[in-house]
Fold these 3 entries.
Entry 1:
Amino acid sequence: MWRLSESQKHDLVTAAIRYSSSYQGSPAEALMVDRGLGAVAERLGVGFVSEPAISHERYRGHLAIPYLRPAGGINSVATIRFRRLGDGGGPKYLGLPGHPPRIFNTQALINPSPYVAVCEGELDAMAAEAAGVPAVGIPGVSSWRDHFDPAFAGYETVFVLGDGDDAGRKFSQAMSERLPNAKGVDLGDGYDVNKFVQEFGHDAFKERLGL
């Protein structure tokens, strides 16, 4: 099983704290506020890479999204993903080399609820959370792993919120076949959760889910 050393865990937590401390007044904050995600982004420790940690130089100027663990301490950050800001070249999202896919916002899985949403991406999970729907994010449709399945057992409903395109609908279909309590929700052509919530509001989003 892939594991971080104690020093790597410490470095990851230190980097997440550094980036979070650079968030206020940064282009990352401007993006999240513009998306209607300001409050939830701060709660989830979103940051900005102003001064990169060692070996993080390629992420300079990126939004930093920490994958936080509820227990805290030296194990509080499972990984960090980075989102390019602006229209520059290169991939929009980057992960840390060697880090396997993980579930974003696992805090949503420990708070009692009859339902939870699985979103195609971290910002969409934040948008659902901002609308009052507990949600996790998966970094891409091919990132699901077998060992994720047990985390969703016992919910009455697992809403699967893929993007409104072919890949997103294939993700919803695959998840509906995989999890017996999954319910795919189509938000419409060209819509992801964040765009839908921004355009139609929180109440319309929950109504689309049948809540």
Entry 2:
Amino acid sequence: MVPNNNFYRIFLWVELTLLFVLIPVAISQAIPTWIKIAAVLLGVAYVIYVSNKVGLLKLRFFPAVFSSVGKRSSLICLLVFVVATTACGYSLEPSLLFQFPLRRPLMWLGICLGYSLFFAFPLEFIYRVFFYNRYRALFGTHFVFVLYNSLLFALAHLMFGNNLVLVIAFIGGLLFNYSYSKNQSYLLVGIEHSVYGCWLFTIGMTELLALPN
């Protein structure tokens, strides 16, 4: 909750802009790699510090975060995503479908695990758990809040330099926000993000989007 204090609200807006706009834009620019790494590490360290200060990292918080898994809505969204992305991949380059796991299964498995542990779950904590707890009260309606969050989530993928990636990330942000808003489950939304990303690796979409395998 945001106290009824204009100075504090301004502080939160500045904080939000630094963490979720300036850092993603900075790491997408042609600047020295060490500056990009330093910016990301400082941002992550700050999120961890604030999260610990407000109690988001305490064990008492996680039972509520992991509760109420909405299986039906998640499965429907996953099915739609699988069908849509498979059809898209097949129409663009059918020869890539499922070639990565078939030709390099160990590398595929390693990348999927690494993606889940070091990308999907951390991003979901930052963009869902931290963002909801920290900034929700700054927005008048939940619709505007979700839209803003999804746009910022897409902005986090700006470093890939691909407009289609931004569109997919924005749609993914809407789906993850829907899931988290409905179920309040960090575990569920983290699993969903992991599965969606790994499916893109599986069907070869990452090559079409010029992302690294």
Entry 3:
Amino acid sequence: MDNKQAIAATMQIYFDSMYLSDRNKVLQAFHPHAKITGYMGGNLLEQTVEEFANFVGAQTPSAKDQGEEPMLEILSVDITGDTAVAKVRDGYLGMIFVDTLSMLKIDENWVIYNKLFHVEG
């Protein structure tokens, strides 16, 4: 699997974590020291990966169980050595997000180290 495919696979795990309300998939996709940051309702929201994983896991029933259509669009991927920046558009909790994901390649696996999100709609 080349780097773009591996990054896409990590982004799919990330999306699946939210779509399935799967805390463990969050922990699989993110580095343990990752930060999740963005504006929600005009307020700055900052979370650790543990806080984000707990939030995602608490969303029950999951988007899949509610019959929501999955929405994940990879807008761009820029790879420089063992770092990358990916931009995705995804549907979650009835909103559309544009996420900027900074990624690291560690032991041949790509993980999200930082997530900046913007609520589009």
